[in-house]
Amino acid sequence: CILRNLIWSLKLFLLLLFILLKDTGLHYDRYLREVIDFLEKDPHFREKLHNTDMEDIKQGKLAKELDFVSHHVRTKLDELKRQEVNRLRTLIKVKQDMNGEKVDHKALLKQFEHLNHMNPYTFEVEDLDRLIKSATNDLENFDKERHEDFKRYEMTKEHERKEHLKTLDEEARKKEEEHYEEMKKKHADHPKINHPGSQDQLKEVWEEADSLDPNEFDPKTFFNLHDTNGDGYFDEQELEALFTKELEKVYDPTHEEDDMMEMEEERLRMREHVMNEVDTNRDRLVSRDEFITATNRKEFLEPDGWETLEQNPMYTEEELREFEQHLAREEQDLNLRSNELLKQREELERQQGQLNAQKMELQQAVEHMERLKTQKTESPVQDKGQCNSFTFFWSKEFCPVIWNKILIFYHYISVFGKCSTFCGGNATWGQSAFVTRSSARPPRTFLAAQALLSVCNVFVCCM
């Protein structure tokens, strides 16, 4: 009974269930999952699911029930929204730093339609409505974007092959072309591919994967066997698992000619084909009733043949030329950008050299000032040391004999300058000689004595 009620609830909430079961590939996938997880924890919100059909969910009518959820859930939803807004702002800042351009944050936030960026603080009814509608629309376009990515992958691979051929000489180019054609032919040589979702294709799974008698094939039993989570629906992953046997006929990871990216694209094509034929309510799930109904159609019993990727090229020659022109423009832009960055690098290196030279000059100036400061500090000490050494040399303690002779000589010169006999019999030169012979010059012996006396006075002062 509990399981039956759970399946009934999940049936009414098909879109949200799909989101929880599978990685959506959306850039807000984590935010989407966390919001749904907390909403399912609220008893009132889960109860409303029983009275809401899928179309109302897609149109956002279920979002109005947000006003009745518990305070704890609303608080957690507010926190989740603030985290998502901060994540988007961080992505915008990274884009701004990478492009080196100014970015209008509000203009970029408008591109994220899964939330109301005008109110970054609280999670309101409008936020849930936007989230459900955006997820529905984005998931519908997700397969289209995957096809475009694979198309670019194929054109890039062909472009690189052609560019590689240009680097070879004539003989090597011929061998490479022959090898390429041989690989294409080898890849195309594979067993017949059954139409996806047809009786032949499902019987082959019944026989090889389930090891059952193909003559006893029963659609209801087959559905129950491959509904791996037991919810009564085939989701996209469960459907894609049914095509593994068919894909193994064409692709082998050990073979050079087989590209595993092409295998995944083929799997996607098969799943889309079955969904378009069987999923009548377009909820991206195949219910048991939809599956049983599809097995009673003529297309199930007598299907057309299935054309693989090599029979359906992903691009035309014109699209390839446009793609190559686009790559050439991108390469030119990258070269211009590279040259600009190189010039900026050279300018930065030049400025760095100037800064290093200025730094060296400043260091030399500082060292010169430090030397001058040191010299000024040491000069008085050296002068004082020299004076003390001179005084010590002439002191009594260093040489008492010289000192005594200097004093005797000084005393002798002092007396000699006043001696009358030294002056030629006169009393003193300053008295009698100057008066009697005023025009005469003083004797040379007197001048010499006076000079010696002056020298002795200097020595005595230095003592």
UniProtKB/TrEMBL annotation:
<keyword id="KW-0333">Golgi apparatus</keyword>
<dbReference type="GO" id="GO:0005509">
    <property type="term" value="F:calcium ion binding"/>
</dbReference>
<dbReference type="GO" id="GO:0070062">
    <property type="term" value="C:extracellular exosome"/>
</dbReference>
<feature type="domain" description="EF-hand">
    <location>
        <begin position="266"/>
        <end position="301"/>
    </location>
</feature>
<dbReference type="InterPro" id="IPR057576">
    <property type="entry name" value="NUCB1_N"/>
</dbReference>
<keyword id="KW-0732">Signal</keyword>
<dbReference type="InterPro" id="IPR002048">
    <property type="entry name" value="EF_hand_dom"/>
</dbReference>
<dbReference type="InterPro" id="IPR040250">
    <property type="entry name" value="Nucleobindin"/>
</dbReference>
<keyword id="KW-0238">DNA-binding</keyword>
<comment type="similarity">
    <text>Belongs to the nucleobindin family.</text>
</comment>
<dbReference type="InterPro" id="IPR018247">
    <property type="entry name" value="EF_Hand_1_Ca_BS"/>
</dbReference>
<keyword id="KW-0472">Membrane</keyword>
<keyword id="KW-0597">Phosphoprotein</keyword>
<keyword id="KW-0106">Calcium</keyword>
<keyword id="KW-0677">Repeat</keyword>
<keyword id="KW-0479">Metal-binding</keyword>
<dbReference type="GO" id="GO:0016020">
    <property type="term" value="C:membrane"/>
</dbReference>
<keyword id="KW-0964">Secreted</keyword>
<dbReference type="GO" id="GO:0005085">
    <property type="term" value="F:guanyl-nucleotide exchange factor activity"/>
</dbReference>
<keyword id="KW-0175">Coiled coil</keyword>
<keyword id="KW-0963">Cytoplasm</keyword>
<dbReference type="Pfam" id="PF25434">
    <property type="entry name" value="NUCB1_N"/>
</dbReference>
<feature type="domain" description="EF-hand">
    <location>
        <begin position="214"/>
        <end position="249"/>
    </location>
</feature>
<dbReference type="InterPro" id="IPR011992">
    <property type="entry name" value="EF-hand-dom_pair"/>
</dbReference>
<dbReference type="GO" id="GO:0005793">
    <property type="term" value="C:endoplasmic reticulum-Golgi intermediate compartment"/>
</dbReference>
<dbReference type="Pfam" id="PF13499">
    <property type="entry name" value="EF-hand_7"/>
</dbReference>
<dbReference type="GO" id="GO:0005794">
    <property type="term" value="C:Golgi apparatus"/>
</dbReference>
<feature type="signal peptide">
    <location>
        <begin position="1"/>
        <end position="26"/>
    </location>
</feature>
<dbReference type="GO" id="GO:0003677">
    <property type="term" value="F:DNA binding"/>
</dbReference>
<feature type="coiled-coil region">
    <location>
        <begin position="320"/>
        <end position="375"/>
    </location>
</feature>
<keyword id="KW-0344">Guanine-nucleotide releasing factor</keyword>
<protein>
    <submittedName>
        <fullName>Nucleobindin-2-like</fullName>
    </submittedName>
</protein>
